[in-house]
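Re: export button greyed out
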Amino acid sequence: MTVDTKLPYDRSYIEQFSSLHNEPTWMTELRVNALEKAETLELPKPDKTKIGKWNFTKFKHVATGATISSLSELPTEIQDFFDADALPENLVIQRNQTVAFAKLSQELADKGVIFTDIFTALNKHEELVKRYYMKDAVSVDEHKLTALHAALMNGGVFVYVPKNVQIEKPLQAIFWQEDPEVALVNHVLVVAEENSSLTYVENYISNNADEDTVANIVTEVIAQDNAKISFGAVDNFAAGTTTYVNRRGVGYRDATIDWALGQMNDGNTVSENVTHLIGDGGVSNANAVTVGRGKQTQNFTAKIVQFGKNTDGQILQRGVMKESATSIFNAIGKIEHGASGANSEQTSRVLMLSEKARGDANPILLIEEDDVTAGHAASVGRVDPMQLYYFMSRGITQEEAERLVIHGFLDPVVRQLPIDAVKKQLKQVIERKVN
Amino acid sequence: MAGSVLEIKNLHVSIEDKEILKGVNLTVKGGEFHAIMGPNGTGKSTLASAIMGHPKYEITEGSITLDGEDVLEMEVDERARAGLFLAMQYPSEVSGVTTSDFLRSAINARREEGDEIQLMKFIKDLDKDLDFLEIDQSMATRYLNEGFSGGEKKRNEILQLMQIKPDIAILDEIDSGLDIDALKVVSKGINKMRGEDFGCLIITHYQRLLNYITPDFVHVMMQGRVVKSGGPELAQRLEAEGYDWIKEELGIEDETVGQNA
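Workaround output, generated via the alternate export path:
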């Protein structure tokens, strides 16, 4: 272990931080134990991407932000996340580490739905958080970054939907890193009890093109029997942020977890999106899309592990690489012994727009049961010259033709995003990254 | 304003160093419908692709002008904006781009920035043409040519023709693979374009399309050249007697490209 990876925060700092937030003792202990582990555990080893020299440990840990009384006080780039004519009824805006705005409809509150920031949840809903926090989905000791996350968690939200409650209107969280140097160590915990359903969408945004910082995000999504969770995200960290994002789902009997992830960071990124289908009849659709540009290096893993019988796992990844961007797309379908009748399908497609861009798609199927079906498709290619010719023969310039082809290439994933305003916003981010 | 003039002089075209066209001369003016006929492998589609600027074809000699402007100096999109249109024999499938988005981009490419076609007007015009071509409205929101049947692709090409309204259109085997009903509809669309501002070059190797679209001029291609030109009666004679009499008349044994007489 080199000196570079020495951690910037010690035990007393963490105890102080925890007490400042009035955290329960178990949480303080969890943090302190995690810190010890973070000192010895190794970084994760994403397939085919070397991250040993990436900065995951040097950052400023604390920054607050001003609260707002009306959404109109937000900068336009954040207002773009809403449809002005239909403002979200259920919304949390985290500005640095301050809850700048929070709203949950009375109807949902009356039904026992919880949608609040993680620190409030630790105080008000301690038992529920304790039951799920880094237990069934992500473990503290998986590697250095999960341990570091647990030690230094400084933001996030808790979503809880009680048994038999079906939520029609989406819940939306915006994590706005206004301070260009502060790290976001964000924890999102989504729990859907039996027979419940919800749609949750989150947006990450920062503007630190020059200042270096870190995002270390762990998201745990738990769908109990017959629950249905539709999870959407648009990640939009600026070039200065090095990101580790781990979104993990656990689905029990007949549960559905659908992911629609717009991974639009401009900095180096390691993204893991793993779903465990534990119970019989579980379903997961993991959709992800990215546009790489500049010199950024990214590694995306989409993985569905199927333990239950008759489960269905579908992975769809699409990426566009331009300039000198490099991305690895790992798609892993795993069917465990005993998961008879399971189906695992995956498609990864990468479109490269320049000679220096690099894209690599690794389709992996790991199957330990005979009575299953599975399939995979992967392709890495350039814009089809015959398509360009066709567009241009209609008077469309090459530039515009490429723009249309790129949007078209990403559309099968973009259209899965559960909120129209966010879909529109993702299209805008794509537009900005493509031009 | 009178129509445009497309003038092709002594056109020689090669693909991968093999000469396919060996001196084609042809003039198409606004108001005129020309048919180019000939057996397979005589260079008809090459002519169509060379006019539009297909990247695989190399012009080795001769000229193409549109209203006096050098077409060969233009990029493919510039040719289109100058007034040319090619209905393709095998149009590309474009996943993720709807027919409607594609058409709107094509129309706006001809308009100034800030003067884009109004969405409502575009939809109204599109609906009208869809109905005229007996195309289901859903095609507008389907991805361009993806999963289309052969007949749907051809109708879509004609839909584009009607929407874009070029000065000179080249239709490359627009009739191939169409059943009789589809052929009638496609012909109806092409006939609707008739007018003094619209010239058309119809490439086909079946006479049957010409039962529905009456050409003003008929040309026969063999061995990479136009070997015979005439009026509509020429097409009728070809229908009745085939191509052998022309080969006999000109002393051609093998009409395909690469076989010199």
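Chain B has a mean pLDDT of 94. The button fix ships in the next patch.
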